[in-house]
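Standup notes, protein team

Yesterday: finished cleaning the Polyplosphaeria fusca set.
Today: G domain-containing protein structure.
Blockers: none.

Input for G domain-containing protein:
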Amino acid sequence: MATSTTMVVKDPFPRAPTPTPRVPSAFRLITKRTSYQSLRSPDLLSPMSPVAPRPFPAVEPPQESPGWEHINVISPSTASHHSMYSDSDDAFRSPRLALLTNNLLGSHMQQETEGIRTLISPSAPVQQPGDELLYDVGTEAAPDERYFHADFQAALAATKQEMKDISLAMWGCPASHRIGSDLHHLKQWAQNLSEFEPTRTRTVGLVGDPGVGKSSVINSLLDQSDLAHSSVDSGHSTPVITEYRYRPAHHDEPFGMEVDYMTTEEIRELIEELLRSFRACYIPAFHDIDNLEERQEIRTRSDKAWHTLNSMFRSQPIFTKDFVLQHTYDTEMPLVHIFEKWAAKFLTNRPGGFDARTWSSTAFNIDECRDKIDAFTSDPIDEDTAALWPFVRVVRVYLRAAVLQSGLVLVDCPSLRDLNFAREKATERYLRNCHQIFAVTTMKDALIDKGVLDIVKRNGRHRPLRIICTKSEDINVREVERSQPDISLQVRTWRQQIEGLQKQVKRCEAQRRHGVSGALEEETRSRDMLEDIEYGLKRFLVERRNCSVATQLIEKFAADVQHGDLKIFCVSNKDYFDHRYDEQIRAETRLDLSGILHLRKYCHSIPADAQFEAAAAFINHDVPAFLGSLKQWAVAGLGDMNAEKAEALKHLMQRLEETAIKKFILPTAQIHQTRSSLNQDFVTGIISPIKEHRSAWRKAALEKSKEWSKWDGKDYAAFCRHYGNHSSKDTGQQSWNDDLLAPMRDQLEGNWDFFHENVEERKRGLKLSIVTDFDEICQPLKERSTSPASPIQTLLSTIPHRISTIQHIIETNFSDLLEGTQQLETDALYGHVSSYISNLMSPAYHAAAILPSKSPVSPTTPISASASSPASSRASSRSSSPSTSPASSPTDNPSPELLDKQRKELITAHVVSSRLYSKLGTLIERSHRGFTSIVFSNIHAAISREIDALIRDMHLVVPPKDVLVNKLGAGGTGHTPNYSYNGGSPQESLENVIPVRGPSRDGGGTEEVEMVRGKSEAEQYADFAGRLKARIVLAERVVLGSREVVEGVRGMSFGEGGEGT
């Protein structure tokens, strides 16, 4: 992976402009690698240290800049923390960063001497001799996809380089630095194009139980050994979704972080669900559960809910288990409201403040990045400080990893089996928006892992699935030798050779230590031979087991995946990092056995098609449109045109500008009509049938509920506890939510397919209208075009590229619209946890599950003494068994038969009388309108940018007006006239003026007036414009060649494992 070696120096504190520095002394700069280590040395803070603060007088603008001996250069890791965090953020530092900065920054940063200049030196790691011999991720084979074809990548790089060269060339013209000028706008446009990165991404979610190696897989894919970290050591899985995205090279800092906070409504829902989960094993209904496995599951959920609650409110002195359990529902101040107030008070001091919905920062190295992320994903060291992670929705980490550069977004998702219902819904909803799901397990437990079974079940037959089996290196040779007779003799022979070589290596090592001649060479030769033989045996066993496990997994789960599209990846994260920095040739074979290279190659291929289309549109449409606008600037004002024709052309351009705004921007534009038509199509095809058939569906739901009422009471209660989705011996696997939706699903599936066809039809109509509307604009221009080099003809030659750009915008956004509509269909017609029906039915399920008492507390503690397992002494005191309280004792003990009857009546009444299908239709319509609004807002914003560029080009077609200005006032005092160019910025040059003398308008003498010939920016800088036109011709040739490459690559056939032909 390429590494930038540019030295960037920043001053995080305001200061006056620095004049030219003196000749630098022999002051030693601290690079990122050396400084981070040297900060831990007491010598750094010593007065004799070469980098210790040295006072000098404050520097004023007229004075000389201080020499290097007067500048304090510090490590970027600590400096950037100091500059990014406010004083109020100190309580939210990660544990490791808190210890580091408290010990070091106190004397080094917080007590800075006045006048000392503190600079940050974020230099790249120093290349050492021999680094070129080590393994380089950049040498890995690219996937067999169009985007990675060598010719296409070369064409893309050449096009971006042309944009960079033109951008630099425009810097030579003063007009490019005048804000508001056309050339300034074009220069910024060129800079943006030169930094182009395809923005079409594909999201991959990794899900697995704690301890299976999910975080290690992410680290291996990112080629970062310690960025994502496991929660195994803490004993609890942190339910925070973490995204890893690519950070473009134009950012100074190589790492960026963003944190999305929960909304107030989400916090309230989380608190309510945590209280339900925690109290579940303290209510009377818990003692009616006979299934020991279910009991243990409830206890585990209760323990995890208490851990989260304790992390949120442990700073409150009165917060204990007794307080939570004895606080009944019928008190004057509900417990949820108390917790909400506590949360609001705590969150006022979080980074960004209470009203902030996001927080962002940057980092210069992985340690600093990890430190800042830990503050939002881990418990603080101080047991009296509440944690931020329960209030965090998503954490995003931006870094320059090769696997992310192709548009991949890696997502570390918590195991859904470990989450409370509120977090489970949110996480499942997130996973359903991922393009692919990777279920992570271990080689040993792959076939029996309940986490994999749960993911396969949730994934369903609507999507493909990928399974990653970790720890492939974990093989016991002797166990294989004993348990597999078919290869026992072969393995034994191999093992005996290895044992003999191990003894030989030890003998040579002993001889070397005793100075025996030639022992070192013999030891090296024997050790290399030993490692080769060990690798050969390991490869034989690993590949054999990988093949066996993959075959069994495919046989077991292929039928449960869309079109049988199931891929298995067997990886070893340990082997990857053990050999990551081996010599290139040696590392290639070892890393290939780890399986990470194959997995990373596949990950590169996931966004490849989307990236190719985005990059192809950049080369085919965006860059030619820019070159057309740049050429329009260069030819502006050329040609002879009398005043009458110029005025007529001005009126024409004004009329065409109004037409463009009317056709593409205003509410009368076709894009807005298309949006309204799609909303109407959805109402006609989906919402109206729901209103029409909801009575019949309600009757069918009532009959289905009556069938459930015939079940045994314990089975019925178990289904209520599992939100309608459960399996028992008598009932088998059932989903009440799916059963309630069955008649609706049968009725509407065909309607959804028809609506998807309508979306495609509306897209085609919109794209066709774009061509028609531009033809209306072009026709008057074609009638006035006089020569191939005229400004009008230049404008006409650019319009086809604008049409193609807008059509590509429509194509990509309608692709998102169709994808979102398909997801909406799944959420509307199926009963998974994050579906609409689940959201509507969950209150009834919960109410039925906690019958009979309004009080949440039972007079006894959970049956198991291990209901909770606190991690600290203070948590132990909080987690002690709650005392018995009269307020917590139910007044009556209804019979099981009465409870069963009440439970069934409650569910039936909710199904019949809650206007279930009316609410369902409202939720579906609201979601569709919201999503459609977002998509069309994106389309409208992108089209507006293109129309803005078109109108700028139109303005450049109109010749500037001549201006009559006053040069000499009465008495002959000269002054500089003010006048506007095309209604824009004041002119800076008075060349080619026509002097006219006449009587003063105020009768006070004579004045000199001049008719100034209006000039375009290009005419003011004619030499530059001439050179620029020649440069544009060269750029057009390069872009033409790149476009030919794009079409050639597009016509090739590509297949997995082969090369394009």
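Follow-up from PR in the comments: The chain has a mean pLDDT of 78.
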